[in-house]
């Protein structure tokens, strides 16, 4: 059973990007980590501080894009992902944030405050990325988390 006391949330400095890249590789999720990305991880305290979840917030001039939200497969569907994303609330509250979740994850992202948005109501960059992903056959949505400050 998931116990928040067994995990430590932390911001990952750019100099530690290789650790996150290794985590993504271990989780069979291949993605790059940009030098300007805000990166956060969740470590399992009893397991030698092993990274069990990671997420990137890509910065644009006007908003953030939540990318590469990954929880190790054997820890999924236990509440860890929701807990993890709630930990980045402070970063999300400061600037609007967009994401491209798979359709079956709509309820998950909605549970932490993201709202589904029609493509025509999104910024052009988000619209273009959405169209690109859909053309690749990805069954995704556009979701938005409004800034509250």
Task: Describe what you observe in this structure.
The structure is a single chain. The radius of gyration is 15 Å and the shape is globular. The chain is built from 5 helices and 7 strands; from the N terminus they run βαβββααβαβαβ. It has 149 residues and is of the alpha+beta class. It has a 7-stranded mixed sheet with strand order 1-2-3-4-5-7-6, sandwiched between helices.
Q: What is the helix fraction of residues, given as a range?
A: 25-40%
| Count of folded domains | 1
CATH architecture: 3-Layer(aba) Sandwich
Radius of gyration: 15 Å
Strand count, sense and barrel status of the largest sheet are: 7 strands, mixed
Q: Give the low-confidence spans.
A: none
- Name of the CATH first level: Alpha Beta
CATH-wise, what's the superfamily?
Gcn5-related N-acetyltransferase (GNAT)
Instruction: Look up the CATH topology.
Output: Aminopeptidase
Q: What's the rounded overall pLDDT mean?
A: 89
Number of helices: 5
The count of β-strands is 7
Q: Strand order within the widest sheet? A: 1-2-3-4-5-7-6
What is the beta-strand fraction? 25-35%
The SSE string, one letter per element, is EHEEEHHEHEHE
Summing up helix and strand content along with how strands pair, one would put the structural category as: alpha+beta
- Basic shape: globular
Distance between the termini: 35 Å
């Amino acid at each position: 059973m998931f116990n928040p006391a067994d995990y430590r949330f932390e911001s990952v400095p750019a100099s530690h990007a290789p650790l996150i890249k290794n985590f993504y590789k271990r989780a069979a999720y291949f993605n790059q980590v940009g030098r300007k990305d805000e990166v956060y991880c969740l470590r399992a305290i009893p397991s030698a501080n092993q990274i069990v979840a990671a997420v990137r917030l890509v910065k644009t001039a006007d908003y953030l894009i939540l990318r590469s939200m990954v929880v190790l497969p054997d820890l999924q569907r236990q509440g860890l992902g929701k807990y993890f994303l709630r930990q980045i609330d402070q970063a999300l509250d400061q600037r609007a944030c967009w994401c491209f979740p798979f359709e079956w994850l709509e309820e998950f992202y909605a549970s932490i405050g993201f709202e589904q948005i029609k493509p025509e109501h999104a910024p052009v960059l988000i619209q273009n990325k959405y169209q690109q992903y859909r053309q690749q056959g990805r069954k995704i949505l556009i979701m938005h988390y409004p800034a509250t400050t």
